[in-house]
Amino acid sequence: MGGVVAGSDFIGCNGNLDCQLLRQQQVEAAEEDSLLLLPGTLSELDIVMDEVKCMAQWAGSTEMLRASSDEPFCEAGWNHASCWPPALPGELIHVACPADFGGLHYTYITNVTAWRQCYTNGTWDMFDNYTDCLRNQIQTSDPDAGSVQFAMTLNAICAFLLYIGYFLSLGSCLLAISIYARFRTLCRLRNVIHLNLITTYVISGVAYLIASFVQQNSMSPTNSYDETTNQAQITQQNTTDIKCIIVAFTYGQMTTFFWALCEGIYMTCVLFRPHKLEQMLYWPFGVLGWVLPGVITAVWAGIKVEFDLRGDWLYPLNKYNYIYLVPILVVLAVRSCLRCYVVSHILK
Predict the structure, then answer these.
(1) Among 281, 233, 287, 279, CA closest to 259
(2) Residue 216: beta bridge partners?
(3) How many Å apart are CA 14 and CA 341, to the nearest integer?
(4) Is the whole-model pTM more than 0.70?
(5) Cβ-contact 114, 132 below 8 angstroms
(6) For the segment 54-106, what is each residue's pLDDT rounded down to a tens digit?
(7) How many CA atoms does the CB half-sphere of 103 hold within 13 Å?
(8) Cβ(114)–Cβ(130) below 8 Å
(9) Would you say 119 and 125 are in contact if contact means Cβ atoms under 8 Å apart?
(10) pLDDT over threshold 80, residue 271
(11) Cα–Cα dist 318/262, whole Å
(12) Contacts of 320 (CB under 8 A, 6+ apart)
């Protein structure tokens, strides 16, 4: 942390005398308060000076944005952890995870970033997302290269095992589909329902792998943070291809639950209406398993595009996601009721 800024030429005041006097008073008050703190603690002076440095760092960009357009934009700011640059409406800002916070030093297992959304009305989202930083941080007062390397290796092994599991699952599902396709005599209604359920696993798995790859690529420091200049980069949030992948993954998830419900309905009919099995047709199950999830997913995607100011399709904690989460919960509740009904009947 540096000392008090010389003179009263504070960045961001634009020559306003009252603003300059206020900044000077803040610094002087922080100096007095810092004398009362224990050594090694974060003083009010440090906080004020970090804010002043942050405003100075992005003063030029702020003036350029203010001069180039009359539209509102998100101002640069300091949140006691990161210096956020100004952003145009609808853009997402990535900055490096803080190396020092609260007097402690942090290193990170992978190249992750914190991000913050600028809404289309030119205001910041109140939530600064440090989720990836918290998941990958190692608190160290004196970074040990050995422990960091071990953590990075362990993280890489876990990711490798995850992808191996997905590929093995996809391989097994594709093998099952090929068996059903080869032996046409297996294509009775019960097996067709099984085949559709397996197909949903393939859709979900492929969409997840693609979404995971695209997300990691979009979060890489080469795209989001310039380490050579120590400058945050402004990136456009969630391009069309990412949105399409997320929609496909959501649809795959929904079809998995709905076709599992179809399985439950059919098995219930096997137990309680065996004489009606020959009269059962595929199309009601097809509508329930494929069409209904497609309608719900289309409604969710349309509403999200139209009304979601955050515009972040990779962020799971979003109120608009309840549009498809509630039907999934209803399906799970119906399946649980069917299971309890079958078990109670068997135990009688």
Answers:
(1) 287
(2) none
(3) 73
(4) no
(5) yes
(6) 888 888 888 888 888 778 888 888 887 888 888 888 888 888 888 776 556 66
(7) 7
(8) yes
(9) yes
(10) yes
(11) 29
(12) 300, 303, 304, 307, 308
**In this predicted model, what pLDDT tens digit does every residue of 104-139 receive, in sequence order?**
666 766 677 888 888 888 888 877 888 777 777 665
Measured CA to CA in angstroms, residue 209 lies from 195, 238, 256 at distances of 21, 17, 16
The residue type found at 125 is D
Of 61-70, 142-151, 196-205, 312-321, the one with minimum mean pLDDT is 142-151
Residue whose tokens read 């007095």: 32
Give me 280's structure tokens: 């059962």
3-state secondary structure the chain: CCCCCCCCCCCCCCCCHHHHHHHHHHHHHHHHHHCCCCCCCCCHHHHHHHHHHHHHHCHHHHHHHHHHCCCCCECCEECCCCEECCECCCEEEEEECCCEECCEEEEECCCCEEEEEECCCCCECCCCECHHHHHHEEEECCCCHHHHHHHHHHHHHHHHHHHHHHHHHHHHHHHHHHHHHHCHHHCCHHHHHHHHHHHHHHHHHHHHHHHHHHHHHHCCHHHHEECCCCEEEEEECCCHHHHHHHHHHHHHHHHHHHHHHHHHHHHHHHHHCHHHHHHCCCHHHHHHHHHHHHHHHHHHHHHHHHHCCCCCCCCCCCHHHHHHHHHHHHHHHHHHHHHHHHHHHHHC
**Residues 204, 249 contacting (CB under 8 angstroms):** yes
Cβ(236)–Cβ(311) below 8 Å:
no
Task: Report the alpha-carbon distance of residue 160 to residue 157 in Å, rounded.
Answer: 5
Nearest to 3 by CA among 22, 21, 27, 36: 27
pLDDT digits (tens, 9 = 90+) for 14-35: 444 444 444 454 444 444 433 3
Contact 234, 93 (CB under 8 A): yes
Residues 34 and 40: their CA atoms lie apart, in Å, by 11
